[in-house]
Amino acid sequence: MGNALISNAGSTHVNLGVSCTTGTVGFDHKYCTVGGGYRNRARGPNSVIAGGLRNVASGWESAICGGDSNVAIGNYTFIGGGNNCIAESTFATVGGGQDSRALNVYATVGGGGGCEASGWVATVAGGYGCKATGMVSTIAGGYFNEATDSFTFVGGGAHNMARGAYSVIAGGGSMDIADSNAALGDYAVIGGGWANIASGERATICGGVGNEASGYNSSIAGGSVNIASGILSFVGGGSNNFADSCWATVGGGFFNTADSAYTTIAGGSNNKAYGSYSTVGGGWANYANGEYAFIGGGFDNNTSNISSTIAGGNNNITSGRVGTIGGGYGNTASGDHATIAGGWSNIASDTCATISGGRYNRASGKYSVIAGGGGGSLADSNAALGDYSTVPGGRRNIASGNYSLACGYKALALDTSTFVWSDGIGTGDSSYWDCTFNIFSTNGTRIQSSNSTYGLFVDNINGGGDGIQVWADVSAGTN
Description:
The protein has 479 residues and is mainly β. The chain contains no helices and 56 strands. It is rod-shaped. The N and C termini lie far apart (150 Å).
């Protein structure tokens, strides 16, 4: 079968193939070349087909090296080889592969199968079924990846979709399109993993499974089913964590929620930080609800007012402003600036009330203090009820007078500025009037001194009565 040289200046053509054609009917195209092969057609001026089968070079200075059924339509296009490839627009390039398409100006497909570069200056290096449709979009390889907006990039993997302008997916994805990665926001980045979605502008997901970064500049480092929806929010890892507000952070763990501005949860499980600037270090089911509130860890602790703190423990509550609980169980600091260091079921309910420890103790006066003590039930507890009242410890002691102190067992300091010490033998030894010092001792009171002048010196500075009076029951013996 003969070759056909179609031109008024056929001497400018070279046709060394079999059943090959150079030139185009009705046009005086020159310098068309077919180096070999079968049924190749070099139709454009200065077009070249080196060899192969059924290839067509119809664009000006288009070139095909070889392969089968390839078509170089655009001017200055190039196809290296492969099968059924098309270089359609000016300066389009196809290196090879099968069913590859370079359809826009300066578009490039390196190889692979079924790949398409239809955006201006779009590039698909290889892979299968990949499509770079955005302007200056790039796909390095992989399976059915898409780069659909301007300056997008997909490195590899399967079924990944870079759809936001300047978005990047390095790899990952899945053979199931439902589990693909999607960078939907402008400048969004996904490093890898599968079923991740970066929909916020400048959002980043490094990896993991089923994560979603929808907030502006939000980030997720890894883990599974985490959501960063706030502006500049961050989730480090773990599972089912939520950073839902601006600058919210969850380091890791499980089912944690940072739901207000500048909140932080380092880890743990089922923790919630709802107050602005609040922090939960870890533990389980802790709730930091007040602004600037802090919970270090533990279980089922709750801070509900501004700048309140719980270091740890279980089932503790700070509801007063700037309240503090160090640890323990079931403690409540409801007064402003109230403090409970630890213990069990203690309550500090007024301003600056303090309980160091013990059990079932109640400090309900302003600036009241209980150092410790208490007992196994509410009836055995100590109570500092007066303002500035104090119970150093013991059991069933009550300091209800302002500036009073009750210590020992069953001591009742009921009046202002009174001191009561009781051994608890009676039903309740109490003060009788203000500004008194009361000691209730069944076996007597001993005061020993090494002073050579006085064993006991009592000075009545008012001078209106005795310095000291002693009442004694003489029926028991000589006194």
